[in-house]
Amino acid sequence: MVAEIIGIGSELLLGQIANTNAQFLSQQLSFLGIDVYWHIAVGDNRNRILEALKSASKRSDIIITTGGLGPTMDDISKETVAEFLGMGLEIHEPSLKRIEQYFKSTGRIMTENNKKQAMFPKEAKVLQNDVGTAPGAIIEKDNKTYIVLPGPPAEMQHMFINYVLPHLADKSDKKIFSRVLHVFGIGESTIENRIKDLLLRQGNPTIAPLASYGEVKLRITAKASSQQEAEKLIKPIQSEIEKRFGSDIYGYDDDTLEKVAVNMLRDRNLKLALAESCTGGHLSDLITNIPGASDVLLESCITYSNEAKIKRLGVAADTIKTYGAVSWQTAKQMAEGIRRSSGADIGAAVTGIAGPGGGTQKKPVGLVYMAISGLNGTETKEFRLSGSRLGIKHRSSLHLLNWLRLYLINNY
Q1: H helices within 60-164, ranges in order?
Q2: What is the DSSP letter of 168?
Q3: What span, in angstroms and rounded, lies between the C-alpha atoms of 350 and 220?
Q4: Domain check: are 345 and 282 in the same one?
Q5: Most CB atoms within 10 A, among 55, 117, 149, 207?
Q6: Does residue 388 share a domain with residue 272?
Q7: Degrees to nearest 5, angle at CA 247 with 246 and 248
Q8: Is residue 234 located within the same domain as residue 261?
Q9: Sheet containing strand 249-252, strands side by side
Q10: Phi/psi at 182 (5° precision)
Q11: Are 55 and 25 in contact (CB under 8 A)?
Q12: Radius of gyration over every alpha carbon of the chain, rounded to an integer in angstroms
């Protein structure tokens, strides 16, 4: 089967938002063995939506629209799909009751135009929205499947996973399953050279390197009639890659460096404290986004100024005067200071030049020093990173998390 995704909304064409819905849907459809050959973005315009539907119906078996299910006049996706299929709309009473209850529970007044969201063709299988107000729908006609989904990603993803995925799973006799291996600190070209022989002879499963922010994801994908059969195909390839990369592989599938680091600290019953300078709290934000981070993170200090480093962390004024705030000596005392003052098992620190200004020939933009202080003393590292200010802050945080992971492996 072939699917096509039509993102509806002028904001997509204006570049005001990224079409992450298409990315999510393509990934999910691939797991079902359903090919996606076209992504279309179209504005809130009846004629252009009709044109997109006409083209999609000629070349695809499954047509999915996202967006345009709200209560306002420019939300016309559902109405246009119904028009294209020659179907009328009528109130779907269960949906209307859910919308009314939603407004009642939030203490808001439901305006008359919200009833528009409960209008569907009588031939439609209506999909309830457990996250917002706009229901979706599945309509089958002329051996084609039309799926109408809301635009907000949280609503769309929940609806797809819980209601659309089971419907589509029954249509596909082959399933696609993937295993993702996360490799950090090695460039994509180096990784490709290490597995070039595997790439050259790949078939089923396939291997796809995907690079982003200092890491490369190696997605191993197998097509089979069952998950068990796919796992048997994936296992020998996965084992060979693991043998070649060892501890450079930090996780699998949905793992992130922050998730892995938090879990490792929790498993070892260790407490962490952070001292951040150039990252400005980004490292702490990544860690505290992980459920259960409170089990391991005692505190974090953004000691951005020299005065804060001296007063809060006990960094010697002479150290900063002699070596500068961006130096391994300062990073070392920052990590030791936060560990000492917090009582944590491990203190970690980062200081650097995020740019775009502030760099010199000796200390260019992207120069970052890190330190980890623990049971066996304090270690420091120097990194020279590239990118925008935000990019350097993010890469610095990821490098410290990866180093923390390796530090835990080697010392605890």
Answers
A1: 77-84, 93-106, 153-159
A2: H
A3: 35
A4: yes
A5: 149
A6: yes
A7: 90
A8: no
A9: 206-212, 215-224, 175-184, 249-252
A10: -100, 120
A11: no
A12: 26
Please tell me whether residues 273 and 373 are part of one structural domain: yes
Range of the domain at 26: 2-169
Tokens of 43: 């504005």
Ordered mean pLDDT values, 10 residues apiece, the chain (412 residues): 95 94 91 89 96 97 96 94 97 94 88 93 95 94 97 94 89 80 93 95 89 87 88 96 97 96 98 98 98 97 98 98 98 98 98 95 96 96 95 96 97 94
pLDDT at 36: 95
Shared domain for 210 and 293, answered yes or no, is: no
Return the closest-CA partner of residue 304 out of 340, 351, 372.
351
Q: Which tokens belong to 267?
A: 């498993």
Nearest to residue 248, comparing CAs of 197, 196, 346, 181?
Answer: 181
Domain end residue (candidates: 145, 169, 193): 169
225 and 315 share one domain: no
Contacts 24+ apart (CB under 8 A), 380-383: 380/328, 380/331, 380/332, 381/328, 382/328, 383/352
| Domain at 326, CATH number | 3.90.950.20
Residues 80 and 22 in one domain: yes
Among 169, 188, 217, the domain-final residue is 169
β-pairing verdict for 90-91 and 119-120: antiparallel
CATH number for the domain harbouring residue 118: 3.40.980.10
Which two tokens mark 337? 């200071």
**Crossing angle of helices 328-342 and 306-313, rounded to 10°:** 40
Tell me the angle at which helices 257-267 and 389-411 cross, rounded to the nearest 10 degrees: 30
